[in-house]
Amino acid sequence: MSLALRGIHPKLIPNFTLISPVALRTVSARHNSRHPTLSCQSSSSSPLPANSQMEKYTRPPAQFPPVSPHRSSVQGTTAEIEEWLREDGHRAWGFVIYRSTYQNQAAWDEFMRRLLANTTEMLEYDAGLDLLDNLALTVFDNPDQFDNATTAMVRDHFKQWAATMDEEEQGPIYIPKHLRIPGSQRYKYCIQVTQEALESALADDCEKKQMGFVYIIQAKWQEYSPYVDGERLEEEEEAIEGCTLEDVGWMKVPFESLMPVIWCYLRPQWAWDVEYHRPPDMSCYP
Prior knowledge:
With 286 residues, the chain is of the alpha/beta class. It contains ten helices and seven strands. It has helices at residues 3-6, 21-34, 51-58, 77-88, 105-125, 143-146, 151-170, 195-202, 258-265, 271-275, and strands at 96-99, 139-140, 189-193, 213-218, 227-228, 231-232, 250-254. The strands form two sheets. Strands 2-1-3-4-7 form a five-stranded mixed beta sheet. A two-stranded antiparallel sheet has the order 5-6. Helix 5 (105-125) crosses helix 8 (195-202) and helix 5 crosses helix 9. It is globular. The two termini are 22 Å apart. The relative contact order is 0.18.
């Protein structure tokens, strides 16, 4: 999708490169050299977390402890998460997750275990394990409503949920509205896990053609006209769920980098325009 259609001036966009599955594996290898315990083979070796442990991350965020920023900016993603919680007046961070496959409960439990394990490893790398106290793993898990749901169905539900959940979920916000910086990723994007995504995330073959992935859905997306002043600025693409636009409002992102890396990359208002890559290709995060 052209920057003109998105209303973004090219000079405001930092350099960003979207790369092939082969290059993605190279990035993953570099990442695992810094985080060796995140390799494909080791990620399935730990036992599933006890239900009581998972409940820690699924209880209402209003019960979470407040965050008092104390990190240096050199501490990377953890310092950013901490600062954004303060800016938003929030107690909780983390993507809302929609489960759209119900074939295998054990596989789903393993997916959630790996998600928590990956997040823990990355927070530990940046000395941010205390931020696990503020991680909210909110999961919509209803087969009658979400089994094989389209991204449009998930988006519609998420938009309705997010419209009222900012203050309701986070508890009283003591920062005056005119001083808040809008844009918590928690209410702008959600994650959808399809059967294809689940299988990719749990596959142990590090030489597979594509890294494990999930879908990330932009809440505010809506269909747009590919024409500006009568001139078509983008080609008609192959239909995805009936949409032939370049930007279909969702993309595949690497599962292992979901939180905190992708969470942090999606903070800026212009993030979607920079990071987006049309499915079936995957957006890559360093």
